[in-house]
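Section 5: illustrative case.
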């Protein structure tokens, strides 16, 4: 496996553990709908949490969350709609970003709940 692939998978696992430790129920990970992907789908209380995990080994150029572009957000919304429809859910949805940095073998996690919403992407 490529080093960056392993790094990303490690970050997703760290994010998954973080969510579990913070009382989120993990429903699935790496959900695909056509070319759109959701890293983690979780549930907190009666809210479906759609999580994008972004990781960097440094923040020299930008913070990890800055990589969640409008086009990425639209793909996540598309995949979330697909998941909701396939599972026949009637539930509130929230889009979160988990921004991770690994510096000196130490992970730092920044959780950004409600990082964006579908109304922002309709404009």
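Designed sequence:
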């Amino acid at each position: 496996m490529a080093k960056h692939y392993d790094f990303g998978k490690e970050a997703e696992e760290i994010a998954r553990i973080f969510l579990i430790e913070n009382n989120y129920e993990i429903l699935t990970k790496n959900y695909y709908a056509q070319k759109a992907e959701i890293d983690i789908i979780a549930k907190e209380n009666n809210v479906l949490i759609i999580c994008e995990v972004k990781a960097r080994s440094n923040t020299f150029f930008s913070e990890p969350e800055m990589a969640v572009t409008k086009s990425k957000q639209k793909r996540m919304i598309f995949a979330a709609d697909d998941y909701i429809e396939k599972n026949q859910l009637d539930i509130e949805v929230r889009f979160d970003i988990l921004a991770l940095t690994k510096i000196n073998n130490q992970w730092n996690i920044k959780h950004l709940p409600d990082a964006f919403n579908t109304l922002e992407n309709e404009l």
